[in-house]
Design brief:
The complex is a heterodimer of chains A (228) and B (307).
Chain A: E1 3-5, E2 8-11, E3 23-28, H1 34-42, E4 53-54, E5 57-58, H2 67-70, E6 72-75, H3 87-93, H4 98-102, H5 104-114, H6 116-120, H7 131-143, E7 149-153, H8 161-176, E8 180-184, H9 188-194, E9 197-202, E10 205-211, H10 212-216, H11 219-226
Parallel strand pairs in A: 3-8, 3-9, 6-7, 7-8
Antiparallel strand pairs in A: 1-2, 4-5, 9-10
Helix pairs in contact in A: 3-7
Chain B: H1 2-35, H2 42-60, H3 64-92, H4 100-120, E1 125-126, E2 135-137, H5 138-141, E3 150-152, H6 153-175, H7 177-187, H8 189-194, H9 199-221, E4 226-227, H10 232-246, H11 251-271, H12 277-291, H13 295-305
Antiparallel strand pairs in B: 1-4, 2-3
Classes of the chains: A alpha/beta (228), B mainly alpha (307).
The structure holds adenosine-5'-triphosphate and magnesium ion.
Chain lengths: 228, 307
């Protein structure tokens, strides 16, 4: 893909793939173009050249609101909850379409089991939750659509170390239950530890790729992202 | 005793008027919340509904309360069309003026009121329903009442219907997926989009519903009011003042703001003079802007969000 904001190109001819059942990570410095890449997959931004396919079918020309029906869920940067809607209403908004809608109550119970805090606060406005609880709600809302591919944009943003660990455990669990994951993160060490494969993005270009483990031991990754 | 009677009577009239005002402002607030624009043709859309009700009554003898069921769907479709063919295309135009959608609604208002003048002349019209001056009296129910209060039948009926419509709207917005999607679109359109909400369709639907609501208000006003082509301005004004009192885009605020303005105008008319109601409206408008920026909604929000 090649993505522009106005006339400014921020993504330069990048190409990558996510295989079914994998956790794939995109890492990179601030402004590298990670969020832009996810937004382009979601259809909020359009790639000028190139194509994006999902399960063999092209999706880059689709209306963004149709992608969730195909099985792609995006938990955006900074959570983007509906702050003046209750926890439960936010979850409902995750399951507007098709089978996910029919199974709404069942999936909701599963989310509540994963995050008991959300059950306690289900009638509270999302805006009154703590940062960690809001992140749980954002993850829960993503799960409500029963996606095939779950994209996370910095799910650990602003969380304490304990909560960060919880979030990574949840993501591992989501993968184990059969969902494919594409994750963007600043917590490079923990991300590479759970990722099957990862791509390193610098200035809108992919400069490195490999398994999580191999990148953990890569000299460039060590100096630029792990600070060792 | 006479003083108390006058006060209570004024309060009741204000309350009834406020219920109808709330209906006007609800549509405007809904549109403001989702589209981020002030619909300055709101009153003129109400005027259209009033002419529909007027002609249905005059030509076919259809009661204005029944014509709600004709005018509201008609203006719902009209509103969806305005959003789709006028407002959405304008949204894509880059211009030096950021609010060219609002300017477009001003143009629409002018076209509608001039069209009404050409088609229906500038004459004042009214709908002489035979129950226009019926009323209930407190002494009918309570023989020994020390004070006398009366309740105009068409006003009461209009008020009750306005309440029913408001409750129906509230149920729609809070219980249905489409209603939730509309609220979600007003809070964060991009987030709604990736969750599968067809944001453009929600905008059309919202403009349609806003127009249908003010159409209902028009039909409810016509048994108790008169009609002329340029009456829209006054009601656009009312809607705008209420949304400022209530808090831009807040539907709860619109209901409370409507009641506040209704009571305030009624008090001004009784204690200062009939012609002073618009001055009172202006005064409360300025007061709300100065002392309660963010409106009633900011108080509600503070309580619910602890901010
Ligand atoms: N709406 C926009 N208009 C113009 N430029 C933008 C816009 N959004 C992002 N950019 C630019 O595009 C580049 C990539 O931004 P992006 O948000 O994708 O970075 P990121 O890798 O997600 O960074 P971070 O880790 O800080 O979230 C940056 O240089 C940014 O300034
Ligand atoms: Mg980012």
């Amino acid at each position: 893909m090649n993505v522009f904001y106005g006339d400014v190109q921020v993504i330069w001819d990048i190409s990558f793939e996510v295989a079914q059942g994998e956790i794939v990570a995109l890492i990179g410095a601030n402004g590298a173009g990670k969020s832009t890449t996810l937004k382009t997959i979601s259809g909020i931004l359009k790639s000028r050249k190139g194509e994006i396919t999902f399960n063999g079918a092209p999706i880059h020309a689709m209306e963004p609101y149709r992608l969730i029906e195909r099985g792609i869920a995006h938990v955006p940067e900074a959570r983007r909850l509906f702050v003046e809607m209750t926890v439960e209403e936010n979850l409902d908004m995750g399951s507007l379409k098709g089978a996910a809608k029919a199974e709404r109550e069942k999936t909701k119970q599963q989310v509540f089991e994963m995050f008991p805090r959300l059950r306690e606060r289900r009638r509270q406005f999302a805006g009154t939750l703590s940062g960690g609880e809001q992140q749980m709600l954002a993850i829960g809302r993503g799960l409500m659509s029963k996606p095939l591919l779950q994209m996370y944009d910095e799910p650990s943003l602003g969380l304490s170390p304990i909560l960060v660990k919880d979030v990574f455990n949840v993501i591992k669990r989501i993968k184990e239950e059969g969902t494919t994951v594409l994750i963007v993160e600043q917590n490079v060490k923990q991300t590479l530890a759970i990722a099957d494969r990862a791509y390193v993005l610098e200035n809108g270009r992919i400069i490195l790729q490999g398994t999580g483990e191999s990148l953990l031991n890569n000299e460039h990754v060590k100096t630029a992202y792990l600070g060792v | 005793m006479a003083q108390l009677e006058l006060f209570l009577q004024t309060l009741i009239s204000g309350f009834l008027l406020g219920g109808l005002y709330a209906l006007i402002a609800l549509g405007m607030a809904l549109i403001m919340g989702v589209m981020r624009i002030i619909n300055l043709a709101h009153g003129d859309i109400m005027m259209m509904a009033m002419y529909i009700a007027f002609w249905l009554f005059t030509l076919f003898g259809i009661d204005p309360y029944v014509s709600v069921f004709i005018a509201a769907p008609a203006l719902f479709l009209f509103g969806m069309g305005v959003q789709k063919y006028l407002l959405t295309p304008v949204m894509k135009v880059e211009s030096i003026l950021p609010h060219n959608q609002v300017i477009l609604t001003v143009g629409l208002a002018m076209v509608l009121s001039n069209l009404a003048t050409v088609l229906f002349t500038g004459n004042y019209r009214s709908t002489p329903v035979n129950y226009a001056s019926n009323a209930w009296y407190l002494t009918d129910i309570w023989k020994g009442s020390p004070i006398e209060l009366s309740l105009s039948m068409p006003w009461t009926l209009s008020f009750v219907i306005a309440i029913v419509i408001t409750i129906a709207l509230w149920l729609f917005l809070s219980k249905t997926d489409i209603g939730k999607s509309i609220r979600a679109t007003s809070q964060d359109p991009d987030a709604a989009l990736i969750l599968g909400v067809n944001v453009n369709r929600m905008r059309m639907l919202t403009f349609g519903i806003g127009c249908a609501l003010v159409a209902c208000a028009g039909c409810l006003f016509i048994p108790i009011y008169y009609l002329y082509p340029s009456l829209g301005k006054q009601f656009t004004n009312v809607g705008f003042v209420i949304t400022v009192i209530g808090g831009m885009g807040s539907t709860n605020g619109a209901v409370i703001g409507g009641l506040i303005l209704g009571i305030f105008e009624s008090m001004t008319a009784t204690y200062i003079g009939m012609g002073w109601a618009p001055v009172g409206r202006f005064a409360i408008f300025v007061a709300a802007l100065v002392f309660l920026p963010g409106g009633v909604a900011s108080i509600i929000r503070r309580r619910k969000l602890g901010k």
